[in-house]
Amino acid sequence: MSQFNLLRDFTLDLVHLFDETSSSEVDVDLKCGPYTIPAHKGILASRSPVFSAMFKNEMRESRETTVYITDISISTLRTMLAYIYTGRTNDLTMSNAQDLLYAAHKYQLVRLKNICSEFLKNNMNDQNVLRLLEFGNCFDRDLKDFAMSFIYNKVEEFSILEKTQEWQRFRKEQTELAMEVVSLIRDKNLNI
C-alpha cells in the first residue's frame, strides 16, 4: 500500500473519531454556548500546545471533563476541530478565515494559522486591506507585513484611500498603525 493510501486511511479513521455521533472513547466535552462537542484530550493535546497545557497542568480542565470555549463561534470551533483531527480545512471564506486565524492563534495551531493567513493574503484588495492590516497587527505579523506591502505597491492613489470612511475609522481606532501607513506612503513618495 502506498504512503498516500496509508495517510488517506489514517485521516479517514480520524474523521470517524471526530464524528460527533460516534463519540466513542471521548474523554472531554467542548462546551461552546448551548452546544457540546465530544472530543479526545490526547488528540487535542497532541495538536495544540494550549490544549496540552490545559490537560497536563493543574488547571481546571485537567481535572474536569468539560472545557468551556467562550470566545469563538460554534462554527469556528467545529472547523478548527476538523482541522485538528484531519489536517484539512474546507470552504474558507474571508469571514471564516479571519475567525479561524484568531482561533489558530489562540490555540497555537501554527499550520492552520498559516493556511488562513495565506487565504486572506490571496484575497486582499483595496476594500479590505485596512481591515486585514488591523487584524494582522493583532494576530499575525506576516499578514500585517503583507498588508503594508500591498498598500505600498498596489494601492494606486493613497489620497483616494484617505477619503474613505474605512480610513477615517481606521485612523481613529488604530492611530499608531495609521501613522505607520502614512509614514510608509511618505517614504514611498520621497523615493519617487
From TrEMBL:
**In which domain of life is the source organism classified?**
Eukaryota
**Family annotation (Pfam families):** BTB
BTB domain location is: 26-90
The protein's matches in PANTHER family, at most eight in alphabetical order, are given as: SPECKLE-TYPE POZ PROTEIN (PTHR24413)
- The protein depicted here goes by the name Speckle-type POZ protein A
